[in-house]
Amino acid sequence: MKIFLKNLQKGVDIQRRVWYIILVNNTERCNNAEKEDGRMMKEEFETIAGYEVSDKDYYNIIEPMYMATNLTKDDFVKTISKKRFALKPISTIKREMRKCADSLKETCDHYTDTETLNQLYKLIGEYIDRKGYGESIGYVVTSDQTPFKCSYPAVIEFYGRNDYRTIDKITLVA
Asked: Residues 56-84: pLDDT tens digits?
């Protein structure tokens, strides 16, 4: 009988703990209800911040940070590092690609500038990510030649991998 009462007491203790946990979780939900209703959307964050961020950074880093704080939206946006999260505008990426192509055209008679060429390919990848093309896109870099028969990138053509239809075209060197 003593063992039965002891086991019964353990069961009551466990039941009390379960009810306590449920009560605490419901209380926390009520306290956070205002915050959950005040959830900040990505577009809203970008409007307040004045710059765009990647989906990956927003949903994996910025939004969870915001939900964990008690700051207002404006105060929270001020705490986020623009240098770390801001995406380059597409116009800036195109300008940098053209600058790389011009540099490659100028130096192609003398030597192959692999560093600048690698930077160009990195910018192309950034452009594809920024435009949201994903894996369904391919690209071709068309080269022109100087009178001395050295080649340099002149045009980048982006095409759909399924239908090979041109989606976008960037003229690097005029």
From this structure: 889 999 999 999 989 999 999 999 988 89
Tokens coding 54: 């990647």
DSSP 90-140: HHHHHHHHHHHHHHHHHHTTT---HHHHHHHHHHHHHHHHHHT-GGGEEEE
What residues contact residue 42 under an 8 Å CB cut-off, 6+ apart?
53, 55, 58, 59, 63
Q: How far apart are CA 162 and CA 169, in angstroms?
A: 17
What confidence tens digit (pLDDT) does each residue in 112-142 have? 889 999 999 999 999 988 887 878 888 999 8
Query: What's this model's pTM, rounded to 2 decimal places?
Result: 0.63
Block residue for tokens 């577009």: 43
Please give the radius of gyration of the chain, using alpha carbons only, rounded to the nearest integer.
Answer: 28
Q: Could you tell me which of 126, 132, 160, 157 has the C-alpha nearest to residue 143?
A: 157
Buried b (16+ CB within 10 A) or exposed e, 17-49: eeeeeeeeeeeeeeeeeeeeeeebebeebbeeb
How many Å apart are CA 129 and CA 144, to the nearest integer? 26
SS3 174: coil
Q: Is the dihedral of CA 60, 62, 63, 68 positive or negative?
A: positive
